Every structure is written in structure tokens, then in C-alpha cells.
């Protein structure tokens, strides 16, 4: 038996919850891919979204929030800065620590991307009652918060 065979033998079949989360992730990623004509990659998009959701952040906190190395975050920040989607400002006089925030162009890019999210919301509203929508919202936040703790 090879190492790969041994690993496959130890894995149990995925649960319905695992399948449902995986399928939802695949569908959402496919939607995001289809609505990104600017060619922003996943990590760059995630940086923009994190800044939209949480506001200005320093690069260390941003990399931690995204679960990526500081080097990976810095690379994404350089590209986004070159595209004028973000701006960085020194936090103190020594200028070693910076805060990163969205520029008006970055906000405009995300507003354009928001149309796809809003279409997703409309699709969900078509199949969920108002009560189900509230429960789904609460459950999504709980699951996202729980998965977020795995990054830290």
C-alpha cells in the first residue's frame, strides 16, 4: 500500500455539511471569477474586501486577518498600490509602520464587484423565506467566525 493509498483509506467520506460548504464555496468562487474583468487575483481581492469590511489596517494585521504571510500580503499591497486601489500612510514619525486603506478608485472597483454579491443576495431571497434569511445570515456569521479562528 502506498502512502497515498493509506491516506485515502484513513479518510472518511465527507459529511453532508462538508459537501454543502464545499459546494457553496465552489459556486461563490465561480461567481467571483466571472465578475472580475480587471483581473484582480484572489489575494488582491481579499485584501480589498478586508479593507472594505474592517476599514484601514496595518499590513501585519491585514496579513494575519487573511491567514497569509507578511511577504504575501506585501506583494498584494504593492500591486494594489500600483493600480491605485489602495493607499498607505505612515502611522508615526519613524515611517516604518503604515496603515493601508482603500482609495476612491478601490471603493469604485468594489462597488462594481458588489453587483455580483447583490445578485447572489437576490437569488438567496428568491428561495428563502424572511425567517430563513435571518437564520441563514446568523448561521453564516457563526460559521465564518468559527473558521476565522482556525487562521489564528
TrEMBL record:
Stretches assigned to the HTH marR-type domain: 14-145
Pfam families from the UniProt entry: MarR_2
Name listed for the protein in its UniProt record: MarR family winged helix-turn-helix transcriptional regulator
Organism: Streptomyces pulveraceus
Amino acid at each position: 500500500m502506498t502512502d497515498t493509498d493509506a491516506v485515502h483509506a484513513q479518510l472518511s467520506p465527507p459529511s453532508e455539511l462538508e459537501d454543502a460548504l464545499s459546494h457553496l464555496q465552489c459556486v461563490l468562487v465561480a461567481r467571483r471569477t466571472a465578475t472580475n474583468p480587471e483581473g484582480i487575483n484572489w489575494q488582491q481581492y481579499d485584501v480589498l474586501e478586508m479593507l472594505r469590511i474592517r476599514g484601514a489596517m496595518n499590513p501585519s494585521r491585514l496579513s494575519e486577518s487573511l491567514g497569509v504571510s507578511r511577504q504575501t500580503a506585501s506583494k498584494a499591497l504593492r500591486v494594489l498600490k500600483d493600480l491605485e486601489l489602495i493607499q498607505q500612510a505612515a502611522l508615526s514619525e519613524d515611517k516604518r509602520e503604515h496603515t493601508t486603506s482603500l482609495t476612491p478608485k478601490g471603493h469604485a472597483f468594489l462597488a462594481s464587484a458588489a453587483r455580483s454579491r447583490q445578485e447572489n443576495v437576490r437569488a438567496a431571497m428568491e428561495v428563502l423565506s424572511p425567517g430563513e434569511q435571518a437564520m441563514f445570515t446568523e448561521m453564516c456569521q457563526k460559521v465564518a467566525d468559527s473558521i476565522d479562528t482556525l487562521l489564528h
